[in-house]
Each structure stands twice: as structure tokens, then as C-alpha cells.
Amino acid sequence: MEDFGKWLEGAEVKDLSVLASGRKTETVKHPCSRCHGTGKYLGVRVHMAESKCFACKGTGFFKTSAAVRAKGKASRANAKAKKIAAFTEANKELVKFLRDNTSWNDFARSLLASLDTKGEIHPNGLAAAERMMAKTLATRAKKAAEKANAEASAPVVDLTKIHDLFATALANGKNRRALLGGDNMKITPAPERGKNAGFLYVKVDGEYCGKVTPDGKYMAGWGNKVDVTEDLMKIAADPAKEARLYGMRTGTCACCGRELTDPKSIEAGIGPICASNWGL
């Protein structure tokens, strides 16, 4: 009787008198709103072998009303949401790890898609994800330790005078600043709104070599083998002097990178405009 009651709730019977006689009842057919009862897909078809409606599967109608179907859909959605919440609660760290790494990991995205669709992750996928998380966290811990060791042993450079030059140039409207010196070295301030605000970037011959932290520690770039410490310290000790020496030695202005053509500028190692803008 319980099953019959559920059936009766979803089906609308035209004539209740037939129930007593045991005759087969005729249920009301509820037209599909997607295809307007035609059973045909009304949208644009591209390389589709069939033209039947996706909602009613080509029948043109449903055996239950829209309200009953909506109630069932909501019930299923609620049950799946509870299942996802329970799985997430039981695997907090793993799910968080997967969500934090979807930007670069296709496997993480596929597992989360499975979780959103099925309310869980298959045990095999779960085990693979746990191995991936352990390996990734171990690699990150190793890199963090290497970075800490590198910072602890990094040479310290007093950048006060270089920062003062950059500040003067900025105050004079020079937003794009770079100081040349040493053996084709180029020093530029990191973007003020970036994660390395206050750092200085160091390049030699156009190749990135490393960066100097706000407290003066030089951190060589990954895989960099060029030792720039000597030139960097020399420039930091007296950037004004080194800028002029660079200009006299190369014929190129250390502040704007342009060729020095005026005899007085060549002799001074810097042009009058840059000298004024940079406080040299």
C-alpha cells in the first residue's frame, strides 16, 4: 500500500472509480514545456544523429506534474549536497588541497568534478590524490628549506643610496627606472603593487640573475651561475660615481640607456637631463 500511495501522489487519475474494479487506470499526460509536447528538439542541431527532445526523451510528455518533478529534483539535489558536505568534512585537508591547486593541475580538477557530480571521489582516485598531495607538500617543504638556507647565507648589500636615486627619479616623473653599471648590469625596482614591492631586480646582459630584498639580501635566481655580488656592492657603495664611470666607459647613459653624443655628456658620463632627474 505504501508503494501504491507514492504512485498515486505522482499520478493524476481521471476516474477513481476504476480503482475499485481493478481495471487499468489512465494517467494524465503532462506536456513537455521544452518541446511543447512534440517530442522534438526545437533548438539548433549541429551534427546530431537524433532530433528528439532531451527533457522528455522524445515522448512529448511526463507522467508526473512539473511540481512533483521539481520536488523530486530538489530532494535529489539536497541529498547530493549532504553527501558532498559529508565527504568534504571527512577529507578536509585533501579537498582543500585539490581546490587550491586546480589552476595548474588537471587531475585535481577532474577529481573535484567527480565530487560535484557524484558526491564523492572514487577510492582509487582518492588514494592517488593523497599520494599527489604528499609528494607536492614534500617538494614545497624542501624548496622552502632551501630558500630559508639561501636567505640565511645570502650576502648583504646596503641599498640605501640606490633606493634614494630611484626615489629622486620617481619624484621627477620617471616612472620607468633602471640603473646600469658594472659589467652590463641592470638594476630595476620591482613593481610597487606586486608581491616583491621594495625589492630590486638584477640582470646581466639582459638575463635575470636574482633580486635584492628590502633588507639588502641578494637572492640569486634559480639556476643562476653568474656572480654579481662584487659589481652590485660596488654600485651600491657609490651609485652616482659608478653611473658616471659606466657612461664614460661605454658611451651609454646609465640612467636612460641612450647613447651619449654630446661631448660634454660623454666627458661627464651622463647627460644633463638625467643628471637633474636622478639628482646626480
Describe the structure.
This protein is an alpha+beta fold and 280 residues long. It has three domains: 1-64, no CATH class; 78-153, no CATH class; 160-277, no CATH class. The chain is built from eleven helices and seven strands. The protein has helices at residues 2-10, 17-21, 66-90, 92-100, 106-118, 123-153, 160-171, 229-237, 239-250, 263-268, 272-277, and strands spanning 30-31, 61-62, 179-181, 185-189, 200-204, 207-212, 218-220. The strands form two sheets. Strands 3-4-5-6-7 form a five-stranded antiparallel beta sheet. A hairpin with a 5-residue loop joins strand 6 and strand 7. It is elongated, with a radius of gyration of 36 Å. The chain starts with a helix and ends with a helix. Mean pLDDT is 84; it is low at 10-14.
